[in-house]
Write a structure and sequence with these properties.
Blueprint: H1 9-19, H2 23-45, H3 48-64, H4 74-93, H5 99-107, H6 113-131, H7 135-145, H8 151-158, H9 162-191
Helix pairs in contact: 1-2, 2-3, 2-4, 3-4, 5-6, 6-9, 7-9, 8-9
Length: about 190
């Protein structure tokens, strides 16, 4: 796991050499951190193929920025790049990440005071966003993601067409993704 690793003088030397174009230095860093980067990506995506794609993007980014970016803590830098790549992938696939997954990820930081504060603020922001949805969207959203009903079941219970249910879910998710992404980004920035 990247968060438990420490930057070493060897990392610094390899980064300097890589900045000068050394393939050997890149391969050494790749070998040293590949498993950790893969684990970090996999725990966020739960998909091995997507996690491997993220690993390739992270190390391509490292190579492309060698000598340009002054990296003082390689494990922390890799951790941040993995998060950014995962968020980019999720946005690209427009995948909704339930609040429970985000809270679980924050719980992985243990009883750290900052993590507890961020988790509390994240849940509070999520509840405010859900409450701000129009009533029918809120009801349908809760039935889908809290009660885990599929759109056809929701349509039957609310006497609506499945298409109407999907339209409401689409509008609710668009609003939540847009609003919540900014809240999540601001909480992470504040937590650093």
């Amino acid at each position: 796991m990247l968060t438990g690793k420490k930057h070493t003088s060897e990392d610094t030397q390899l980064l300097i050499e890589m900045g000068k174009g050394s393939n050997h230095a890149f391969e050494a860093l790749y070998s040293k951190y590949w498993d950790d980067v893969l684990d970090e990506a996999y725990k966020r995506l739960n998909d091995l193929d997507q996690a491997k794609d993220v690993v390739q993007e992270v190390f391509t980014y490292l190579w492309d920025n060698a000598g340009v970016t002054n990296i003082k803590n390689l494990p922390a830098w890799l951790h941040t790049v993995v998060k950014n790549q995962v968020f980019g992938l999720l946005r690209k696939h427009e995948k909704f990440v339930p609040i429970s997954n985000l809270v679980t990820e924050l719980e992985s930081f243990g009883e750290d005071t900052d993590a507890l504060l961020i988790r509390k603020e994240l849940v509070k922001a999520y509840e405010v966003l859900i409450a701000s949805l129009p009533e029918q969207q809120r009801v349908i959203f809760n039935m889908r993601y809290r009660d885990e009903l599929v759109p056809d079941q929701i349509a039957l219970q609310l006497n609506l067409s499945p298409k109407t249910v999907r339209n409401h879910l689409g509008r609710a998710l668009l609003k939540l993704k847009t609003s919540f992404l900014w809240v999540f980004i601001m909480l992470f920035i504040a937590g650093k």
